[in-house]
Amino acid sequence: MPELILFNKPYGVITQFSDHALHQTLSDYIAAPGFYPAGRLDTDSEGLLLLTNDGKLQAHIADPRHKLAKTYWVQVEGEPDEAALDQLRRGVQLSDFTTLPAEVERIAAPELWPRQPPIRVRKHIPDSWLALTIREGKNRQVRRMTAKVGLPTLRLVRVRIGDWTLDGIAPGEWQQRSVAQPSMGRQARTPNQPFKFKRP
């Protein structure tokens, strides 16, 4: 039976096991030979990263053709209006492609762990939180989407991939689970703070 690791990746950690001169890597947190990341999460993003020891499961999770839903909590600079949210829902024209329609809603500030280093919030500019679900995973896509509609991303935390969530996993910690079959993620939804996080 395939095994899956759910890892709450801290800010600044690179999603590779080999050493890096400037950043921590997965090997600083996970001692599980034979496991490899199923997809990626940018160094300056936080949250759920999946790793598996099964090639078919890895391909299923990482292959964009399966359109596995990924949900992010996004702290943005500014206050989104309905026009900006509707643009994200319809799809955003970026320089190299048009995004698929996203699910997005404004949410209250979630009860997250403090980020290190702290977010640099400009004193006279408000910030807001969005729950954003996409079914593709181009490079830095969420950041590019919010910037395109005038809402630069300040903090980005992935909280769900398909049916797998961060529930109960503190930053830098991981859980290992057996997986009977790939989760298609058909029931994924845009959550408004449904999870309970452990504090580091």
UniProtKB/TrEMBL annotation:
Entry-linked PROSITE patterns: PSI_RSU (PS01149)
Annotated keywords: Isomerase
Domain of life: Bacteria
Domain annotation Pseudouridine synthase RsuA/RluA-like: ranges: 4-147
E.C. no: 5.4.99.-
Entry's Gene Ontology BP terms: pseudouridine synthesis; rRNA processing
Single GO MF descriptor: pseudouridine synthase activity
UniProt region (Disordered), positions on chain: 175-200
Pfam families recorded: PseudoU_synth_2
Xref: SUPFAM superfamilies: Pseudouridine synthase
InterPro entries per the UniProt record, alphabetical: PsdUridine_s_RsuA/RluB/E/F_cat, PsdUridine_synth_cat_dom_sf, PsdUridine_synth_RsuA/RluA, PsdUridine_synth_RsuA/RluB/E/F, PsdUridine_synth_RsuA/RluB_CS, RsuA_PseudoU_synthase, TruA/RsuA/RluB/E/F_N
Protein family per UniProt: Belongs to the pseudouridine synthase RsuA family.
PANTHER family, per database record: PSEUDOURIDINE SYNTHASE FAMILY PROTEIN-RELATED (PTHR47683), RNA-BINDING S4 DOMAIN-CONTAINING PROTEIN (PTHR47683:SF2)
Protein name: Pseudouridine synthase
Provenance organism: Chitinimonas taiwanensis DSM 18899
